[in-house]
Specification:
mainly beta; about 45 residues; single chain
Length: about 45
């Protein structure tokens, strides 16, 4: 995945939250960040 701002590759971090979905699975938050300051997050 590339940064829409500068075109570099984004670094991805996975974060497991204490909260769960209604079906009982843990919410995993994926955050993409770049050295230029761009950040994007999505919960899976």
């Amino acid at each position: 995945m590339k940064c829409p701002r500068c075109g570099k590759h984004l670094t991805m971090r996975r974060l497991k939250l204490d909260r769960k979905w209604t079906d009982g699975t843990y919410i995993i938050l994926k955050t993409y960040s770049c050295t230029c300051g761009y950040k994007k997050g999505q919960a899976t």
